[in-house]
Amino acid sequence: MDVLFLPELGQFALILALVMAVVQALLPMIGSFTRQPLWLAYAQPAVWAQFTLLTISFLMLTASFLLDDFSVAYVAANSNSALPWYYKMSAVWGAHEGSLLLWLWILAGWTFAVSLSRGLPVEILARVLSVLGFVSIGMMLFVVFTSNPFDRFLPRIPADGADLNPLLQDPGLIFHPPLLYMGYVGFAVTFAFALAALWTGQLDSAWARWSRPWTTTAWAFLTSGIALGSWWAYYELGWGGWWFWDPVENASLMPWLTGTALMHSLAVTEKRGVFKSWTLLLAIATFSLSLVGFFLVRSGVLNSVHAFANDPDRGFFLLVLLAVTVGVSLLVYAIRVPNFKARVSYSLISKDVFLLANNILLVVACITVLLGTLYPLVLDALGKGKISVGPPYFNALFVPQMLLLGVFMGLGPLTDWKAMQWQKLRKKLWLSAAITLVLGFALLPWVYDGQWSIWVALGLTLFFWVMTTSLRDIWEASRGKQGWKGITRSRWGMFWGHVGAALIVLGVTMVSNYGEERDVRMAVGETVVVKGYQFTMTELTHREGPNFIADRAIVEVRNSQGRLISTLTPEKRLYVVRGMPMTQVAIDWGLLKDIYVAMGEELSEDAWAMRVHYKPFVRWLWLGAFIASLGGILAISDRRYRMRVASVPVNAGKTE
Amino acid sequence: MTPKRKQKLLLISLMLGALSLAIGLTLYALSANINLFYSPTQIAQGEAPQDREIRAGGMVVEGSVERDPNSLKVRFAVTDFAEEVWITYDKILPDLFREGQGVVAVGRLNAAGELVASQVVARHDENYMPPEVAEALKAAGQMPDHSPFQRPAAEQQY
């Protein structure tokens, strides 16, 4: 049967793609040293070939999944003939090997997109593509030598697959990893731009303008990927939490923090020609942190919900890859960065300084998270005992840092570049400050449950401060000649980005302070009251799904007046192939509150231990993240990124 | 001082200030929030402190799980096959909690030497044994030969 050869075809395509990556990395590099335009010109076709080949490879793996080819070890380990087709498709990236192939394919896709960008001088484009080629080579060697998804399992072909991990049998799997990888890998493009700048020694505002849309796009993907992951964890794991300070969550948060800093620092570099070396360092750090996350997840040093089954060879290979990437890029940085001194002055009250403060806070926050994540690993490696660093550590440090960051988030947009008089700034700020203090700090914290608490007050203060200053900024922008129509898309992008952040703060504040979680014993016919709501279990039934059997409870929820507001049907499923139990929660969701019921354990014939959660405003934190991502997309659609601008340093004369 | 120097000074002092504040807070927070792992043997020998949160774990002893009929209270023993320690818990046990499987609990020891747990963890994976537990078993010389988590790779998958 022809079908049987698909995996080999995929493997050949993968190896050919590796060869193309070598061409893409080396020829432009040699061309740039020998000044041969022809060699530089090899970069683009090599990219196209690599992308095509990886697409073929990826399709072949997908086809093997859809056709239930259990002779492929990876398919046999992660699929089953009873799995619905859409989970067969997303099972492609449901475990280590396949998700690596997705990673590579996305990298090739990004590279392809860069190769199509117009207005980029060929000598810079070729260098950017060359750097991306090197990244691709490293990762592809890793796949081919340690994690080949096309490995056969011969001659004893299993009759059926071991099934996809039930936790992953959810629409969340379809979107969460691709979005996240789009973010991680997207930062490789900024990284490549940074190395190309170091390589050519040319770093002007044109360079910053090329880098910005790529960075912002990657950031938007990463933001929505993280938010989606948080949402998925909330309804899938059955614990009702939305952030656990799990090492792997931290691994995604770290590049997000430096990436956010990078986005802002690039703005300064473009507009003012300063912070150049800082921007470059951030670009290197952000991609390196993406790789650190990659290492943490796949090397086996962590144990978490996310960790893949792994072996030490992979960990070692990744560590070497990480060391080479960080080592080489920092070496190049150290040698070349003295070329990028800027002689531009700015005063204490200026957008430049406030953005710098924002950058420092974000980087400090990143270091805090890094320390908390790596400390247990380091101690363990030194044989000093097994410790764990809990959420209180992260909360105690991260929350104050974010509060401080919020102050600058309000100040930044309203301040002028270079210098601004305090009196002028004060005029713009007083109304926001007054509204914030009166509503956010003093009045509104009383509303929800009649008690003032400092954490609610601080959270709401932050929310109002960022909202009112953002509104003020967009209102000022609308006072130009063309009114509201004259506001650029990047301005709107910033507005929605900041509004999204404010909404996240609102959601986090409300759900952390007013949420209620109770584990209760619930028997058929009994009523339990949580936060004024009456929960009555009316029935316990069974249900059979396509690849699982389930105990299902029917729970009626009534409000304090006794009116029925919803009927929830949580389930406890047993996925038969793996014999693995899963909690399927039931949520009555709303903008103001979620009511969340999950089945815990069976206590007797007619009684179960149940988790009942009341989560006010929890949706706002994901909504805020998606709004912020959309803000990012809006910003990159700004016309000025599409205009062909010759690479003339705007700040010529200011640069040495 | 030239404006440029002033700027640099400002920049450097800002960074140093933020950094030292961050390091100070970090060390404080770390020291207050670290949970050390103790094996049942270590607890039996009195090595574990009583006044702070610790983690403890091992295999859940077969037949040791006792439930209170009217509430969620549950009591069970974990072992490293050398010593046992009792754990009490009044919340919902994780899906993968089972007799004979490895678990890790976070909590405080009471005067009777029982661990009053605030959290019990078992991973969402059939082949899982918490690494701390695996090591505690090895230390006690009781690592089972044919434990599910040590199956050879090929067998592990099918």
UniProtKB/TrEMBL annotation, chain A:
Required for the biogenesis of c-type cytochromes. Possible subunit of a heme lyase. GO terms for cellular component: plasma membrane. Its main location: membrane. Belongs to the CcmF/CycK/Ccl1/NrfE/CcsA family. GO terms for biological process: cytochrome complex assembly. The keyword Ribosomal protein does not apply. GO terms for molecular function: heme binding; heme transmembrane transporter activity. PANTHER family: CYTOCHROME C ASSEMBLY PROTEIN-RELATED (PTHR43653), CYTOCHROME C-TYPE BIOGENESIS PROTEIN CCMF (PTHR43653:SF1). The chain crosses the membrane at residues 12-34, 46-67, 100-117, 124-145, 181-201, 213-233, 253-269, 278-296, 316-335, 356-378, 398-417, 429-448, 454-471, 492-512, 617-636. It is a multi-pass membrane protein. Coiled coil: none annotated. This is Cytochrome c-type biogenesis protein CcmF. InterPro entries: CcmF_C, Cyt_c_assembly, Cyt_c_biogenesis, Cyt_c_biogenesis_CcmF. The keyword Protein biosynthesis does not apply. It comes from the Bacteria. It is found in: Cell inner membrane. Residues 93-299 form the Cytochrome c assembly protein domain. Residues 319-639 form the Cytochrome c-type biogenesis protein CcmF C-terminal domain. Keywords: Cell inner membrane, Cell membrane, Cytochrome c-type biogenesis, Membrane, Transmembrane, Transmembrane helix. It holds the Pfam family Cytochrom_C_asm.
From TrEMBL, chain B:
It is found in: Cell inner membrane; Cell membrane. Residues 1-8 are cytoplasmic. The lineage of its organism: Bacteria, Pseudomonadati, Pseudomonadota, Gammaproteobacteria, Oceanospirillales. The gene is ccmE. Heme binds at H124, Y128. GO terms for cellular component: plasma membrane. This is Cytochrome c-type biogenesis protein CcmE. Pfam families: CcmE. Belongs to the CcmE/CycJ family. PANTHER family: CYTOCHROME C-TYPE BIOGENESIS PROTEIN CCME HOMOLOG, MITOCHONDRIAL (PTHR34128). It is a single-pass type II membrane protein. NCBIfam families: PRK13254.1-1, PRK13254.1-3, PRK13254.1-5. Residues 139-158 are annotated as: Disordered. The keyword Metal-binding applies. One of its GO terms (biological process) is cytochrome complex assembly. Residues 30-158 are extracellular. Heme chaperone required for the biogenesis of c-type cytochromes. Transiently binds heme delivered by CcmC and transfers the heme to apo-cytochromes in a process facilitated by CcmF and CcmH. Keywords: Cell inner membrane, Cell membrane, Cytochrome c-type biogenesis, Heme, Iron, Membrane, Metal-binding, Signal-anchor, Transmembrane, Transmembrane helix. It comes from Marinospirillum alkaliphilum DSM 21637. One of its GO terms (molecular function) is metal ion binding. It comes from the Bacteria.
